[in-house]
Amino acid sequence: MSEARGRDEPDPGRRATPGETLDRETHRWRGVNALSLAAGALGVLLGQPALLLVAVVGVAFGGFALAARPPDVRVELSRELERTAAGPEEPIRVTVTVRNAGDSLLPDIRLVDGVPDALDVVGGSPRTATALRPGKAATFSYTVRAARGDHEFDPVTVLARGFSGAIERETAVRARGDDRLACTPRLDVGDPLPLRGLTTGYTGRVVTDTGGPGTEFHAVREYRPGDPLSRIDWKRAARTGEYATLEFRRERAATVVLLVDTRETAYLAPDADAPSAVERSVAAAGELFTSLLSTGDRVGLGAFGPGAYWLAPGAGEGHRARARSALATDGAFAPTPREEPFFPGLELRRLRRRLPADAQVVLFSPLCDDYVVRAARRLDAYGHPVTVVSPDPTADGSAGETLARIERRLRCSRLREVGLRVVDWRPGEHLGAAVAAAQARWSG
Amino acid sequence: MSGRVLFVAVGAAAAVAGLAVALRPSLAAGLSPTYVAVTLVGALALLQAGGAALERLRGERRQADPPEVERRRVFPTPGEEFDERLASLPRRAGRSADRHRAAVRTELREATEATLVRYGGLTPEEATDRIEEGTWTEDVRAVSFFAPEAARGIPLTERVRDALGAERAFARRARAVVGVLEAYARTGRPASAADDGASTNRAATDGDE
Predict the structure, then answer these.
(1) I need a labelling partner for A319 at 20 to 30 A (CA). Which of A168, A251, B24, B49 fits?
(2) Boundaries of CATH 3.40.50 in chain A?
(3) Do A416 and B208 touch (CB under 8 A)?
């Protein structure tokens, strides 16, 4: 206690970690001290015994405050969740019980539950204030709205004061019981994203420049024995007596890797209520993953950020389930940034080694820094055609925000200039609409 | 800590002695407090009271700031950092102020050059020349951000307002540059046509805004 009661008192914003105690002198009796000293001084100077008597009362309170010691905080906490797995937006009731496990009365104890960063409290309050006799317990409950992710509850912050309130002790206590809430959204089939030309040898939906079976006309060539009858140009045969065979553009499957920019610099949003660019990217990646699988393409998934996640391109229901689980609860796609170092150069090299030779990349990034532009260009230059789907997190309220918006637009332009495709996806816009608008402009 | 213990000990001893004298005045028979001694004690107490009152009025918060856990984390908006840099420009000239200004100037210069090339139809060299000559826009305040000698063109009343205003002239000019860039990006024509020709298939690029 002695070291905490000096000038090196912990900052009001600093939080205790489990097992640690922080003591702060509240100085709430300082005013009483000043008044009693003033009364005493005036009593002496003016020869007024009544004032001196008033001072004695004040001094007694001051002495009481000075003699205060931090309370002995020994509490046990338990937390119960209505359900530990929920769908997005579902309200989940959380009940916390605190029990005084010490031998002394706690006259003033305040608790704040460690609600995960990515969850909103929509009912009740995650904090309480009470007094607890030894062995007694108190309960409080509140409701959170579930959101995508595997959310871990932080320790409960406990603030306790003695009768005088002169010293406040802060501790953090881990609650027993439920400490995780997992929310796994369904993977809906989204609108298809037109792919670049790099394809595999399997039949799919990407139209190539080589002739063969398909639906889009490509050329007419001389008939060769063995050509299917359905592809013979019968009108020409009737007119000229010569057989010719119709060629269509071959449709092939592609290998696509969906890469989500999850660096800390990608956790951006245009306002306090809007989802972050990473949240929009993850939702879009989920839709696209399902839509590409349903059209026969091989799809992989990666996170370009701390905790780099990698799911090699594949197909099938099991593959889809793995992607769904990763996008929902893997730490690499967490709804709040991970506090770990990230070395983008190393990660880019690792990614390059992992990418199959015939893979193209769909990169989801808000494009709010120059590094990601260089990374996209490099991947494209290595022979993996890149399409960037860019959720726009910019606003235009202030000069800085306007400048950031202009800079982002210039980055999009720089990418387009070197042949990359960019889908500029504005806030509130449906991804399918953004893709359609992009495609229409390109075709025009 | 030891000083504090000493003070508490002396105070407690004095209080006990006072109480004893109050109960048995004969104990203080040998003491004859003079007017000067009593006044000195009163003055000391008053001084101490003043100090304690000042500390109280200073309102130093010494209690924990409980965490705000009700709302999910708010993410930053791109450009906040630039706004903070403009708002926290040091008022005094010096190395720190120079560094601050240089960082803002570099960022705006790069954005201006890129905007002029992209939306103004200029080559990078032409854009640089225009910025240095001060002919890239008609907004004198924006021009004077990169070419200080152009500040002479700003009306005197405006310059006086700049000098007296809470916001530094540097920040005002920086904002003017952003305003001009925004107008360019909104109304200017891209320098080249849709430039995603490398697309080979049912491409999904948007052209230019």
Answers:
(1) A251
(2) 255-443
(3) yes
Q: Which residues of A touch B192 (CB under 8 A)?
A: 417
What are A395's two structure tokens? 């606003």
| List of long-range contacts for B42-45, beta carbons under 8 Å, 24+ apart | B42/A41, B42/A42, B42/A43, B42/A44, B42/A45, B43/A41, B43/A45, B44/A41, B45/A37, B45/A38, B45/A40, B45/A41, B45/A44
CA A378 – CA A336 distance, rounded (Å): 28
CA angle A370, A376, A379 (to 5 degrees): 140
For residue A76, is pLDDT > 80?
yes
Q: Sorting pLDDT into bands at 50, 70 and 90, what band is A225?
A: confident
User: Among A143-147, A425-429, B46-50, B144-148, which stretch is predicted with the lowest mean pLDDT?
Assistant: B144-148
CATH of domain A255-443: 3.40.50
Inter-residue contact A155 to A123 (CB < 8 Å): no
- Between the CA atoms of B125, B130, B132 and B137, what dihedral angle is there, to the nearest 10 degrees? -150
What CATH homologous superfamily does A75-183 map to? Answer: Immunoglobulins (2.60.40.10)
Task: Say whether B81 and A400 touch across the interface (CB within 8 A).
Answer: yes
Q: Which amino acid makes up residue A59?
A: V
Alpha-carbon span A314 to A415, nearest angstrom:
28
Q: Phi first, then psi: give them for residue A34, nearest 5 degrees.
A: -60, -45
Q: Which residue has the higher pLDDT, A411 or A200?
A: A411
Report residue A147 CA to chain centroid gap: 10
pLDDT at B139: 85
Share of chain A above pLDDT 70, in %: 91
Task: Express each pLDDT in A127-149 by its tens digit.
Answer: 999 999 999 999 999 999 999 99
Verify whether the Cβ–Cβ distance B107 to A37 is below 8 Å. Answer: no
**Is the CB of residue A221 less than 8 Å from the CB of residue A232?**
no
Which residues of chain A have a CB within 8 Å of the CB of B182? 396, 402, 406
As for the ipTM of the complex, it is: 0.75
Task: Please state the length of chain B.
Answer: 209
Cα radius of gyration rounded to whole Å, chain B = 35
Provide DSSP, B103-166. Answer: HHHHHHHHHHHHHHHHHH---HHHHHHHHHHT-S-S-HHHHHHH-GGGGGGS-HHHHHHHHHSS
Q: Which candidate, A284, A290, A282, places its Cα nearest to that of A266?
A: A282
Where does chain A hold its CATH 2.60.40.10 domain(s)?
Answer: 75-183
